[in-house]
């Protein structure tokens, strides 16, 4: 089963996910509706038993028109067939058991369905009866009657029917007894059938209708209470939702038609008491369940699916959920969709091309339509009106689009670039250009702002990094100029001067190297080299530094050669800069993972380490000039190592990627392999 409220539609539809249909959902839905059906149909039996145990219906039947009419008909049938010996004309009066009868003239006529009859038998039968009537004909054929109910029995009708004959003397001295036993309703003949059909069946049908209305109400409540998020994952509900409206109407019509056909078929053979519609309803026999449960199950299933369909319409909208699910609506929509595109193409003018041909074509179409209107009758005037409305809407939309372009250009002229124009219609090229101008100008502004910011940071960082060693040099030179100092102190000062001057020299060299690399003004000597051997050489030269550090290196290098078209000196500088970056900024006593991965067309060098400093910057910023992982700038780095490495990699048709994940810092250098090796 299933239900929820709006916006499920279309969660799955908006997210692009298909609902997961499960066997469990379908089985539970079917079994619960089947159980509900069985309970609903079965509840009729105990309620009906209480209803038909009353004698009021029998009394009403005896006092009514139909009983007196049938009793009179039985009398004439017995007289004609048993006394006169004429051909039988009412087969439904054969084997009557619900009415005990005895016809006699105390001489040669003794007609009965009670076997042996005498006064004691008659007296006993009358004593235990619900009703009896005695009809006596005198020697002149005049009739007098006696009955249990007196005037409430329609004896006038009874007398008129049995007296309708050419010679009433045929009935002279005849006495007739008709007795209705206590178990009248237990028999199956024309009397009981008429009584059930006319006096009991309407109330039983009303009972069935009442049970049905209550059951349907409960089913509707249940269908609305079950979440739609479950219902949409039930395959049978989804299939029903997708059916055309006409198919759904056909299902309902089929159910109604089949039900009516079954009722008519049963009633057509009304004397087959074991299978007639009346007795099926009255007795609630096996046919009641064999026929009732499938029809009721189908009805309840269609009701349940219709409730789910209402929620489907609510979620997907009236247009998509209802109108577009109709064949008669889809056909005109399809025709409109089929012709809308050619009409739009006909009326659109590409302003980037010569419009004369298109305008001439439009004029020809309009002249043709005007000519048809003049030549046609009233219908063509209606078509002309529709066409005029279309042209009006087209020109209105064009003017509105033109107004939007004007407003957009006005905003651009005032320096406001926050505009977005629809890139459709006749003015599509202009709108595209204006949108591109907006985006291009915004990119240029952003790039200029970033450039100005980088220049300011570059000046600041260069000033700071050059000033620090230069200040130390000046300070210690001043100290050496003063009074004579001890040789040990002098030696210490000279060492500091030497260290700071070398540091200053490295900064200046890195600055020039970065400037030349970023501008491309650098000599690149490309040759076919084994990049793995070059990387191992770099590691060998850094071996002493690796051993002195507290870092643990984990290597994963291929044993085979990998040939690439590279500048050996520049590539060595790339590896050296990346490794020195690790020495400066990796957390002490942590592990460093270096993996070399060979692919079909390229080779990747992956360096991973845990940073000793918080990396609260964008990964792209770290390759900018004078950007350090240590923002306090307390380390010996220049901030140019990765920037230089990036420029050198790109000059050799490679690329370098920086990834930051928490404290994990990862550098990936991708170098293309030699073409022959790729092959």
From TrEMBL:
GO cellular component, one term: plasma membrane
TM regions (residue ranges): 27-47, 204-229, 249-266, 287-307, 313-339, 359-392
Enzyme class, spelled out: transferase
PROSITE patterns attached to this UniProt entry: HIS_KIN (PS50109)
A Pfam family assignment: HisKA
Chief localisation class: membrane
Catalytic activity: ATP + protein L-histidine = ADP + protein N-phospho-L-histidine
Domain Histidine kinase: 461-675
EC number in record: 2.7.13.3
Topological category with respect to the lipid bilayer: Multi-pass membrane protein
Key words of the record: ATP-binding, Cell membrane, Kinase, Membrane, Nucleotide-binding, Phosphoprotein, Transferase, Transmembrane, Transmembrane helix, Two-component regulatory system
One GO molecular-function entry: phosphorelay sensor kinase activity
Compartment(s): Cell membrane
The protein's name in its UniProt record: histidine kinase
Lineage, opening ranks: Bacteria, Bacillati, Bacillota, Clostridia, Lachnospirales
């Amino acid at each position: 089963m299933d239900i929820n409220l709006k916006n499920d539609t279309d969660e799955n539809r908006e997210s692009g996910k298909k609902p997961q249909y499960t066997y469990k959902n379908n089985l539970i839905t079917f079994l619960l509706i089947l159980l509900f059906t069985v309970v609903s149909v079965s509840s009729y039996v105990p309620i009906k038993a209480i209803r038909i145990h009353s004698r009021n219906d029998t009394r009403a039947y005896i006092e009514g028109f139909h009983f007196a009419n049938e009793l009179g008909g039985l009398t004439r049938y017995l007289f004609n067939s048993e006394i006169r010996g004429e051909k039988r004309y009412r087969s439904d009066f054969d084997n009557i058991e619900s009415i005990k009868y005895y016809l006699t003239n105390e001489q040669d006529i003794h007609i009965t369905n009670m076997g042996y009859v005498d006064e004691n038998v008659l007296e006993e039968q009358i004593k235990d009866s619900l009703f009896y009537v005695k009809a006596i004909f005198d020697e002149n054929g005049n009739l007098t009657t006696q009955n249990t109910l007196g005037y409430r029995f329609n004896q006038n009708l009874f007398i008129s029917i049995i007296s309708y004959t050419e010679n009433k003397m045929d009935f002279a001295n005849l006495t007739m007894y008709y007795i209705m036993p206590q178990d009248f309703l237990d028999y199956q003949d024309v009397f009981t059938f008429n009584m059930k059909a006319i006096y009991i069946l309407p109330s039983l049908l009303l009972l069935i209708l009442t049970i049905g209305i209550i059951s349907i109400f409960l089913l509707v409540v249940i269908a609305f209470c079950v979440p739609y998020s479950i219902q949409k994952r039930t395959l049978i509900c989804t299939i029903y939702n997708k059916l055309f409206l006409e198919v759904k109407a056909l299902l309902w019509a089929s159910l109604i038609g089949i039900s009516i056909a079954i009722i008519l078929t049963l009633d057509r053979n009304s004397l087959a008491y074991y299978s007639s519609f009346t007795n099926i309803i009255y007795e609630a026999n096996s046919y009641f369940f064999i026929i009732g449960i499938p029809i009721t199950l189908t009805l309840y299933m269609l009701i349940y699916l219709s409730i789910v369909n209402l929620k489907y319409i609510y979620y997907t909208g009236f247009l998509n959920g209802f109108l577009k699910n109709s064949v008669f609506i889809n056909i005109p929509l399809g025709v409109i969709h089929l012709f809308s595109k050619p009409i739009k193409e006909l009326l659109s003018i590409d302003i980037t091309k010569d419009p004369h041909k298109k305008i001439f074509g439009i004029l020809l179409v309009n002249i043709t339509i005007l000519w048809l209107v003049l030549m046609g009758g009233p219908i063509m005037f209606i078509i002309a009106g529709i066409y005029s409305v279309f042209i009006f809407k087209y020109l209105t939309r064009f003017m509105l689009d033109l107004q939007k372009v004007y407003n957009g250009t006005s905003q651009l002229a005032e320096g406001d670039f926050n505009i977005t124009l629809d890139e459709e219609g006749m003015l599509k090229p202009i709108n595209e250009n204006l949108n591109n101008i907006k985006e291009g100008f915004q990119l240029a502004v952003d790039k200029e702002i970033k450039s100005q910011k980088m220049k300011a940071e570059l000046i600041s960082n260069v000033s700071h990094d050059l000033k620090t060693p230069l200040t130390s040099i000046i300070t210690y030179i001043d100290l050496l100029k003063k009074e004579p100092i001890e040789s040990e102190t002098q030696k210490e000062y000279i060492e500091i001067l030497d260290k700071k001057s070398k540091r200053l020299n490295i900064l200046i060299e890195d600055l020039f190297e970065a400037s030349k690399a970023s501008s491309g003004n650098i000599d690149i000597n490309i040759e076919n080299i084994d990049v793995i051997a070059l990387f191992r050489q770099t590691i060998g030269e850094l071996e002493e530094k690796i051993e002195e550090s507290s870092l643990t290196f984990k290597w994963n290098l291929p044993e085979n050669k990998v040939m690439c078209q590279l500048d050996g000196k520049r590539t060595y500088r790339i590896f050296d800069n990346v490794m020195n970056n690790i020495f400066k900024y990796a957390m002490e006593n942590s592990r460093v993972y270096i993996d070399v991965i060979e692919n079909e067309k390229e080779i990747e060098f992956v360096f991973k380490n845990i940073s000793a400093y918080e990396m609260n910057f964008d990964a792209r910023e770290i390759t900018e000039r004078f950007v350090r992982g240590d923002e306090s700038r307390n380390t010996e780095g220049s901030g140019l190592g990765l920037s230089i490495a990036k420029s050198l990699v790109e000059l050799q048709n490679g690329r370098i990627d920086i990834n930051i994940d928490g404290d994990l810092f990862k550098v990936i250098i991708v170098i293309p392999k030699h073409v022959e090796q790729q092959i």
